[in-house]
């Protein structure tokens, strides 16, 4: 392959998609891949969705970009849609997940800097195997050394705790604690749902000490698990939430949602973004909301998730040497493997034209577009079975 001018932070991959059709990707030589990765939980309406394309096209022809220094009817309309279906009262739009988490961190800190707050409370408790993005604050929030190496010094103000260990979290709460930052279902960490007791316990601790419960739903949010946001499974509301990925259906869009109380420090002039809330992004977000923010769509995701999971449970029984268990919720599923998952993910992609995503060390993520149906599930199992039957662990290089 010729040398690429792209900074080589990603693998030089021979699969180079140039077109998307519903649940398939087509690469430069016309090879079709079944896409059960969805751009890592982004393309929830699949590829080439007419409603999404039409909304972006119409908006592009009308008004592509305008400064946030002017009023934004498009932004107000999408923010109102989000407020109507969530715990939140107020929304700040960003262009990515990391920026949404950055905004959430700033919102949590600013809450305590308010005149009614306790200005000593500057630290967020964050959790093992978390992934919050690749900016300086978001890598600092994650305790993963491999993400830190070469980029120190990190930002202060993050205290690491074992994921899903409520007693450990309780023991870390002190006079400097501002709140908790947690993924209700860890994505990059290997599709690990938090327990009910943990989520409820963090909410109770936050209430007891006037702390902010900040949820990172960048990967698990926006209908992926069969609820609009995953925390609804737990009956536990956050104070602040970071959203992205699915919310734009492929258009770069993120959002930080908050209650009015939690956002009390985010006053005029304290935060901003040139592109955040751009009319094109608002059109994409609105088209996504039109498609997914209704009970019928969410019920369908739940039902499809149950069907896919049941089939996966049955499937892994045929390959006990490869697979351990299935975990996740809705259409955010992970196959816990008994081997390192990356070589198997590469094998499925290169030899069976099936896109999945590796996570953690031993999880294969299955993240189909939410519009996938039985035909795509059948194709998925054909490819997965052929892949499992033909897999041999490559020799170490
Ligand atoms: N938080 C979570 C939970 C994520 O999964 C990701 C992306 N994988 C991010 C934050 C960062 O999002 P982005 O890459 O859009 O900055």
TrEMBL record:
It is an enzyme of class 2 (transferase). Its EC number is 2.6.1.11. InterPro entries: AcOrn/SuccOrn_fam (IPR004636), Aminotrans_3 (IPR005814), Aminotrans_3_PPA_site (IPR049704), Class-III_PLP-dep_AT (IPR050103), PyrdxlP-dep_Trfase (IPR015424), PyrdxlP-dep_Trfase_major (IPR015421), PyrdxlP-dep_Trfase_small (IPR015422). It catalyses: N(2)-acetyl-L-ornithine + 2-oxoglutarate = N-acetyl-L-glutamate 5-semialdehyde + L-glutamate. Its main location: cytoplasm. One of its GO terms (molecular function) is transaminase activity. Pyridoxal 5'-phosphate binds at residues 97-98, 131, 216-219, 274. It holds the Pfam family Aminotran_3. It comes from the Bacteria. NCBIfam families: argD, PRK01278.1. Homodimer. HAMAP family: ArgD_aminotrans_3 (MF_01107). This is Acetylornithine aminotransferase.
